[in-house]
Specification:
single chain, 81 residues, mainly alpha
């Protein structure tokens, strides 16, 4: 199993980690492992958005060029005089 050293950790972060670990009846080291494990697992199972799904399905076909309609001038705002 690997190990990691975290340097220059803010005192406030260390204090909050110690409090959080105590709330969960864990050591600071175990709490840090749990936080890292959760963060990595969430990122791995992060849901894809619609654009990513479309690119996976249709990306091999290439893109399309859509003709954009010309921009029209903005309407005058309503006046409540």
């Amino acid at each position: 199993m690997g190990s990691i050293t975290i340097r220059n950790l803010d005192d406030e972060v260390k204090k909050r980690l110690r409090v959080r670990a105590a709330e969960h009846n864990r050591s600071m080291e175990e709490e840090a492992r749990w936080i890292l494990r959760e963060a990595v697992d969430k990122e791995a199972s992060k849901p894809k958005n619609l654009v990513e799904i479309a690119r996976e399905c249709f990306g091999h076909l290439g893109g399309v060029e859509l003709e954009l309609p010309p921009r029209e001038p903005m309407y005058e705002p309503i006046k409540f005089d």
